[in-house]
Amino acid sequence: MNSTESLENVSHESTPFSMWDLPRWNQYIFERNMLPSFVFILLLLIIGVPGNSLVCYIYHFKIRNRKLSSNIFILALSWLDLINCALTLPFELFVISNYVQFDNPIICKFARFISFFCNNATSVILLSIAIDRLRVFMSGPRRLRLQASTSNLIVGLAMVISAFISWPMLLFFGTWRFSLPNGVTGEMCLITNYYMLNNHPVEAFTWTLLTVHLIFDVLFVIIYSVIGKRICIDTKATRSMSASSEHAHSFRVDFRKGSDSSAEDDVFTMSTSSTRKSSIRQIDDHISSEDTLYKFNLLNSQNSQNSSVTSIPSSPKKVLLRPSLSKHNSRILSSPFKKQQSRCSATNSEWMVSKRRPVLSRTSIMLFLVTVAYMITYLPYCILVVIRTTDSMFFFRLNDLDKSFYQLFFRSYCLGSAINPIIYSFVSSSFRKKCREALCDILCCLPGRKRKKTLN
Questions:
Q1: SS3 annotation, 84-115
Q2: What pTM value is reported for the model?
Q3: Distance between CA 279 and CA 367 in Å, rounded?
Q4: Which uninterrupted H or E stretch holds 127?
Q5: Residue-wise pLDDT tens for the chain (456 aa)?
């Protein structure tokens, strides 16, 4: 069974199908099989071009730290998505509407190359983002990030690698000609007749691309699984440390409240800020009184030769407690320091754990969702490519509804270039704020708005 026989079986028009010309065949196929795909690509074009243009504008002019590695990668992704939406989606609309009467091999080669180039470069950049996120989460408090020069170099290498992988599109794609009834010849933007007959290079290239794509997906899963595991481990460690610190603090307070301390020591069993202030005030009073004793001893040492003081410290701040000091004063001086030291040690331990714990920022969540969306949108396309490569007659055995779904899911990868601005808007509140500012700037630049502003 071939495409002509399939069309003959489903044709029930009043005019005999053998009398149809090429435009009539094209209209028939478009209405039966290609209309859902046309609407899908049109919606992506309406969403993708303004959305990615807005992302490029924001990350060029509105972001303060443009040298951050994540911002560099997001800007590169947005430019690739914008090129993909602005060039390949209009071409795809033209191909869909002229499905069997497209005869322009140069444009076909160029459009397929651009599409593969942007998608492959996106894969390399997303892998670089995953590695950068892994470095940040595994480096602890140091937060090792890629430098701006390294990030720009990675983006350049992604372009070179993508061009090296995508150049066979310029060789394989072109015009594929096939026969229709009444001697009509159909023409499609597809792999040329030469490589259709000698399909070993095409099959080798197809399986290579699918293998590379599978390797990238496996790496994405492994890297983000390691990041998720690290976050879970550090979160549990932080919770256990916080619980132990709270338990130790409550034990100290209960012990001091239940001890047989004197009335003077009861001041230090309370944990309010006023108690701390009163304790510090008592310490200051004690130090000032000790300073007075120091000056008195200094005068006595100058006037009396029988003074027992043989050497005088250089500063009253460094004077040790005399044995003549009362136990009350020594308790006043030592108790708050002990308690403050224990509290500081508990606080420092909590701070060290929280500092060691990687912070799951909204940028990390946003880039993770972009990667997941890219993997999901490419999955139907890869499955259909495998089916088409292993079974060349699979498409012609489908009915009209199944063919419509086939054509729709065969273009699922186009969704990845238009959905990223939507992900940014849902996840990042700062991005939404920057979008409002950018839209206000754009509206203020309109001629009508400028005229109203000058009149006011």
A1: HHHHHHHHHHHHHHCCCECCCHHHHHHHHHHH
A2: 0.69
A3: 51
A4: helix 105-138
A5: 444 444 444 444 444 556 678 888 899 999 999 999 999 999 999 999 999 999 999 988 888 777 888 899 999 999 999 999 999 999 999 999 999 999 899 999 999 999 999 999 999 999 999 998 888 888 766 667 788 899 999 999 999 999 999 999 999 999 999 888 777 888 999 999 898 888 888 888 889 989 999 999 999 999 999 988 888 877 776 676 666 655 555 444 443 444 333 333 333 333 344 444 444 454 455 445 545 544 445 445 554 444 444 444 444 444 444 444 444 454 444 454 444 554 444 445 444 444 444 455 778 888 899 999 999 999 999 999 999 888 888 988 999 999 999 999 999 999 999 999 999 988 888 888 888 888 887 777 766 555 444 434
The answer to whether the beta carbons of residues 366 and 428 sit under 8 Å apart is yes
Q: Select from 386, 434, 440, 432 the least CA-distant residue to 409.
A: 386
Domain 3-237+361-455 is found in CATH 1.10.10.920? no
Compute CA 202 distance to the chain's CA centroid, rounded to the nearest angstrom.
35
CA 124/CA 54 separation, integer angstroms: 23
Q: Where in the chain is the domain with CATH 1.20.1070.10?
A: 3-237+361-455
DSSP, residue by residue, 32-55 = IIIHHHHHHHHHHHHHHHHHHHHH
